[in-house]
Design a protein that fits this description.
The complex is a heterodimer of chains A (374) and B (351).
Chain A: H1 6-25, H2 35-38, H3 42-50, H4 69-81, H5 87-103, H6 106-117, E1 123-126, E2 142-146, E3 149-156, E4 167-173, E5 185-191, E6 197-202, E7 211-222, E8 226-227, H7 233-246, H8 255-264, H9 270-296, H10 302-327, H11 335-351, H12 358-373
Parallel strand pairs in A: 1-4
Antiparallel strand pairs in A: 2-3, 3-7, 4-5, 5-8, 6-7
Helix pairs in contact in A: 1-4, 5-6, 5-7, 7-10, 8-10, 8-11, 9-10, 10-11, 10-12
Chain B: H1 2-10, H2 25-33, H3 52-65, H4 71-83, E1 93-98, E2 110-115, E3 122-128, E4 134-140, E5 145-147, E6 157-161, E7 168-173, H5 176-208, E8 210-211, E9 214-215, H6 220-249, H7 257-282, H8 293-303, H9 310-323, H10 330-334
Parallel strand pairs in B: 1-3
Antiparallel strand pairs in B: 2-6, 3-4, 4-7, 5-6, 8-9
Classes of the chains: A alpha+beta (374), B alpha+beta (351).
């Protein structure tokens, strides 16, 4: 692992800020809440790819840039703080790339990674199903073995941007084992334009349709599209979930609201603003620590769950602070503040549900804390 | 390792029986014998020549053990005196600051709420003036009168009366604000120690206590409470570890004022949540005097608002974030320090 000196990290951060300032001034984006989910912009993703800010830690031979995870962390958090439209590439860059680097065949790496790093190839996660949310191991999508591959039947739901993506990473059952429910699961890379795949967008209360349902009806998936080994699916998703749960997007979804709030708020709500600033500061440090520990291979399952639990509650708290502030603005809130406030409120119910429902995460914290420390 | 030394010294502390004269003399002697009351004083003048990081470790340990000693006041008092080239008086030292924004007004003949005043051999009194400087005075306890007072945790917070002219002036410090920040930081590290103790007691109790034929930890509602305690403690620990690293790497505490404020805002909230959840898990036994939990939760309740209240610090931070345009917006502040604790943008730390 390369060490990065503090001066070059600081200049990278400044570089990203300058890029964002210019893009914003040119009218190429405006800050939104929940930008990593609701801000789907293929042009913007391609620009980031061209800048070398996607696939940052991957080997160069797959289109990556062999930079450190700390540098990647700095770039991603600056994009989130700016409320920039990073949704198109988010999932692919965050977890599909690492998944394929770890478990993929050489062929899969060559076919997918360069496109992801260029910000041109987009991925949707096929995990949840109508009857399987928190209890992911209960999924029923089945891949029947056939000549040259599998025939897949099932339905995936809450697949963000499936209607705008190229490939679905689908968790499916490849064998009906009697014992352990976690056994017999595999992941398959399914092109979203394959025969038998039907994608239906789902509109949510924000007015956006980032969600989708993906119906798989006798979809033939060749052997070349299996990720890793048959039966390895549970282990793969578990490690993906650590990446998914612990990133700065788990406490920064409403940061754009806070930033504008601070510009307009008056003295009466100083205490509330100080309180959420303190919480964000602490969570930023914890998120950095999780990032370091994942890279070092010392990941403690409690810590990403903890960051996500506390972080998503902070995202909600910022909305409450906004309500307090806006009630005491002498001249009334700006149009931008009103817009961000509405976006945040409508997105809010999702914060503590996605990426692992908080209540379930707390059982994970409870069990793993007792085991490793007491 | 320092943590082990501290743990060994504090191993026999029983916080359920507070010492008769207010301070645990035996523990105090062991701490001073190990140089842990003069951590920041240079070795050349009899100190331990350690850094703020070591001070944080010791304070967390004392906070966790709920020992009755003025460990932060004594350390800072010794540091102030050593900085002035003054001799360190022997015995138990304590510290109080008056006349600044977070302290009581400068008095003439008596100091209020002096930590461990009744047990101290000397009170180091920093008397702030309007220009931010502070006169450093020593109150010899031989000539002083005591009216006993306590905080919620039963720790001595005494009124120390002294005759007019009965204090010795030893010099002055350039910045009372720096000292106030250091004292506030020390309180944060004490709080984190108490949080970790409360968390560990709660996790252990939930796993050991059985009702309805199974441990409390098997009930999801109880699990949630236990987890709240864990989460808020980890949040507090993260920011106070950063505080120690940053303060250890800069020259003037004022540069890190926003981080001190953020730490105090955060640990204060953690203290409130942890105390409530811990008591809820423990049931009635937890609030009896015969159980150790209350000794730690009462410290959380008291300490969250000492050396500046949680609200004082939250408001300070909010005002700082709001009133400095550009570089002090929350995000820039949070990302101002590199992993090595060096500020990357000019002007982020000044108040």
């Amino acid at each position: 692992m390369s060490t990065v000196d503090k001066a070059s990290l600081a200049s990278l951060r400044a570089e990203v800020r300058e890029f964002l300032r210019a893009e914003r001034e040119a009218g190429n984006y405006r800050p939104i809440c929940d930008c990593w989910l609701e801000g789907h912009d293929a042009d913007f993703s391609r620009k980031l790819g061209a800048r070398g800010w996607l696939g940052m830690t991957w080997p160069r031979r797959y289109g990556g840039h062999e930079r450190s995870s700390l540098e990647r962390f700095v770039v991603t958090e600056e994009l989130l703080a700016a409320g920039a439209p990073v949704a198109a590439h988010w999932v692919a860059d965050r977890q599909t790339g690492p998944l394929l680097l770890r478990y993929g065949t050489e062929d899969q790496k060559q076919r997918y990674l360069p496109g992801i790093a260029a910000g041109e190839l987009y991925v949707a996660i096929g995990m949840s199903e109508p009857d399987s949310g928190s209890d992911l191991a209960s999924i029923r999508s089945y891949a029947e073995r056939t000549v040259g591959g599998w025939v897949v039947n099932g339905t995936k739901v809450w697949t963000s941007h499936a209607h705008r993506s190229d490939v679905l990473v689908a968790l499916v059952r490849t064998s009906r084992s009697e014992g352990d429910r976690h056994a017999g699961l595999s992941q398959l890379l399914i092109p979203l334009d394959a025969d038998g795949v039907t994608v239906s967008p789902i509109e949510v209360m924000t007015g956006e349709a980032h969600f989708a349902e993906v119906a798989l009806s006798d979809v033939f998936v060749p052997e070349s599209q299996l990720v890793g080994q048959v039966g390895d699916g549970w282990r793969q998703v578990t490690s993906e979930l650590a990446y998914e749960r612990s990133g700065p997007e788990r406490f920064m979804s409403t940061y754009p609201l806070l930033e504008v709030l601070v510009e307009e708020a008056g003295e009466p709500t100083d205490g509330e603003i100080g309180a959420v600033t303190g919480q964000m500061w602490a969570l930023h440090l914890l998120s950095e620590e999780v990032n370091r520990s994942i890279q070092a291979g010392t990941a403690d399952p409690a810590l990403p769950a903890l960051v996500k639990d506390a972080g998503t509650r902070l995202e909600n708290e910022i909305i409450e602070v906004a309500r307090e502030c806006m009630a005491c603005l002498p001249g009334g809130p700006s149009l931008e503040l009103i817009r961000l406030f509405r976006e945040a409120q409508l997105a809010a119910p999702a914060f503590t549900l996605r990426g692992g429902t908080n209540e379930i995460l707390r059982t994970i914290i409870a069990k793993s804390w007792g085991r490793t420390r007491v | 390792m320092l943590e082990d030394v501290v743990r060994a010294i504090l191993a026999d502390v029983d916080p359920r029986t507070p010492p008769e004269d207010g301070a645990d003399r035996h523990v105090w002697q062991n701490l001073t014998d190990s140089g842990l009351s003069v951590l920041l004083v240079p070795e050349s003048v009899g100190g331990s020549g350690a850094s703020v990081r070591e001070l944080a470790v010791v304070l967390r340990g004392v906070g966790a053990a709920a020992a009755s000693v003025p460990i932060s006041e004594a350390n800072l008092a010794a540091t102030v005196l050593a900085g002035l080239g003054a001799d360190l008086p022997g015995g138990l030292l304590t510290l109080t600051i008056t006349g600044d924004a977070l302290g009581r007004p400068n008095p003439q003949t008596g100091l209020d709420a002096v930590p461990y005043g009744r047990a101290a051999d000397h009170v180091v009194w920093v008397r702030a003036s309007d220009d931010g400087h502070g006169r450093v005075l020593i109150v010899p306890m031989t000539a002083a009168s005591i009216e006993e007072g306590t905080n919620l945790a039963g720790e001595p917070r005494d009124h120390v009366g002294f005759p007019v002219g009965g204090v010795e002036e030893v010099g002055s410090i350039r910045s009372v604000w720096d000292l106030r920040l250091q004292l506030a930081a020390c309180r944060a590290w004490l709080i984190v120690g108490a949080l970790e103790r409360v968390r560990d007691l709660t996790v252990a109790y939930a796993h050991e206590r059985e009702q309805f034929g199974r441990p409390l930890s098997r009930f999801q509602a109880v699990q949630q409470l236990m987890v709240e305690t864990i989460v808020v403690t980890q949040v507090a620990r993260a920011i106070t570890d950063e505080l120690a690293d940053v303060l250890a790497s800069i020259d003037e505490p004022a540069e890190a004022a926003p981080l001190v404020a953020a730490a105090r805002a955060t640990v204060g909230r953690s203290a409130t949540v942890a105390a409530r959840c811990a008591h809820q898990v423990h049931g009635a036994i937890g609030f009896t005097m015969e159980h150790p939990l209350q000794a730690s939760t009462r410290r959380l309740m008291a300490w969250r608002d000492e050396d500046g209240t949680q609200a004082d610090w939250s408001r300070w931070l909010g005002r700082h974030v709001r009133s400095s345009s550009g570089p002090a917006a929350p995000w820039r502040l949070i990302t101002a320090w590199t992993p090595d604790g060096i500020a990357v943008e000019a002007g982020v730390g000044s108040s």
